Amino acid sequence: MVIRVACVGDSITHGDGVTRNQTYPQVLQGLLGAGYDVHNLGASGMTMSKTGMSDGGPGSYWDTAQYQTLINGQWDIVVVMLGTNDSKAAIDKPTCLLWYVPLICAGILACGLMALVVYIWWSGRQTPRADPKGELQDSEAAGEPTGMGDMQAKAAPPRGAHAVAITLLSLIVVLLAACIAMGVPAKAYGGKDENWDCLVCPCEASDASGGEMVQQHPNCEYIKDYAAMLQTIKATGVSPSSIFAVAPAPLMRHAAMSMRFKVINEVLPQLIPQISAANGLTTAPISVFGALQGPQIVGPQTPTGCRAGLAWYKAFAMKVCDGDGEDEHTACNYFCDSTGINCDNCHPNVNGYNTIAMAVYNAIV
User: Fold this and answer.
1) Nearest alpha-carbon partner for 21 in 30, 8, 10
2) Residue 177: HSE in the Cβ half-sphere, 13 Å Cα cutoff
3) 299: in domain
4) H or E element: which one contains 204?
5) Is 202 exposed, middle or buried (0-12, 13-18, 19+ CB in 10 A)?
6) What DSSP element (H or E) covers 135?
7) Residue 132, exposed/middle/buried by CB under 10 A (0-12, 13-18, 19+)?
């Protein structure tokens, strides 16, 4: 009898950045052999959350054709790896913009100062020159035209100069206001930050020390919808001993693909095993996060990310630096290659997908 395997997930399961034959479900099929029938049910950009995100953000896996295939199929093993896109609910929009705010502000101020200098210079050129020798009075006595009308006309700034100056100053004020606004924390995708408000902030104080997130935060949307997904899979006839919850791949740089570093790399690796246990799964959770060396990048400094380059730059392209730019390791071997074709700091490269397939293979056989 052929064992049917469903791989549920987002773009990392779907295999964004590689060919169909290089996706982890397809590699898993090759590892398992003819006795298994592996199906790729990955849907790019989807969340575990039933509501997805608003404002053009990710949609929900529950609304996809892949979900319909899942609930209407007959499966012996189901592997669930969702949560990466859910981290977008927690990311502040300005986070990635903050890197550019100083440059934007400096540019605006520089343009404004230049405009004022030009305006002052322009106006100064039109000021009547001094007449220390009384040339104008001598001309008047001789009955010669003094040209005072012309000079008075020149004394005032050219027509429209005031309007231009006011417009420039108004534009500077508006741009500065926008610049300041970008630096004010804002909640992305319609303010759906509450999904992680109950996890990320308490995590620093209590959950990270070993407290049970599921018990402390039972109303979090991600926790509730993950539990509902597992119950739905069980309802199709899949045994709890054949359902595998997966801690997803690490994020190599904060705000890469609009993802949040802390949620993916610190919250989910702790949370998913707790969700698995709380919902009666008897299988050990699969740590793709660990297989791709995720624990190495978690620390007091947020990594600056993987960088790809030319072949001669390969020694540096395969490394990731922490915030101080000194300590490096080779976790980027799973995310970047020297060509730079696939290096978004979120999706694995071919080596990474192969490693995911091996981790899943070792768990289910």
Assistant:
1) 30
2) 6
3) no
4) helix 194-205
5) middle
6) helix 135-141
7) exposed
Residue 317 CA: distances (Å) to CA of 265, 290, 331, 345, 356: 22, 21, 11, 12, 21
Among 182, 214, 245, give the residue marking a domain's end. 182
Q: Residue 154, Cβ neighbours under 10 Å: how many?
A: 15
- Return the amino acid letter for 166: I
Pairing relationship of beta strands 77-81 and 243-247 according to DSSP bridges: parallel
**Cα separation, 223 vs 231, whole angstroms:** 12
Bridge partners, 247 (sequence order): 287
324 is a domain residue: no
Alpha carbon distance 44, 175 (integer Å): 36
Query: Comparing C-alpha atoms, which of 193, 191, 192, 173 is closest to residue 181?
Result: 173
* Maximum C-alpha span of the chain: 121
Closest CA to 12 of 49, 39, 42: 42
Amino acid (1-letter code) at residue 168: L
Cβ atoms of 34 and 48 within 8 Å: the answer is no
- For residue 315, pLDDT over 50 is answered with no
pLDDT in tens, 77-112: 999 999 999 888 554 433 334 445 555 666 766 776
pLDDT at 318: 39
Question: CA separation (Å) from 115 to 108, 119, 160, 276, 348?
Answer: 11, 6, 15, 62, 48
Answer with the one of 165, 182, 199 that is the final residue of a domain. 182
Predicted confidence band of residue 55 (pLDDT cuts 50, 70, 90): very low
CA dist., res. 148 & res. 141, Å (int): 14
Rounded Cα distance between 358 and 68, Å, is 27
Same domain for 355 and 261?
Answer: yes
Domain enclosing residue 176, as ranges:
99-182
Does 307 map to a domain?
no
Q: Give the range among 67-76, 168-177, 282-291, 353-362 with minimum mean pLDDT.
A: 168-177
Identify the residue whose tokens are 């791709």: 292
User: What are the distances in angstroms from CA 351 to CA 63, 132, 213, 226, 364?
Assistant: 31, 84, 33, 28, 20
Q: What was the pLDDT predicted at 317?
A: 39
Length of the chain: 365
3 state DSSP class of 92? strand
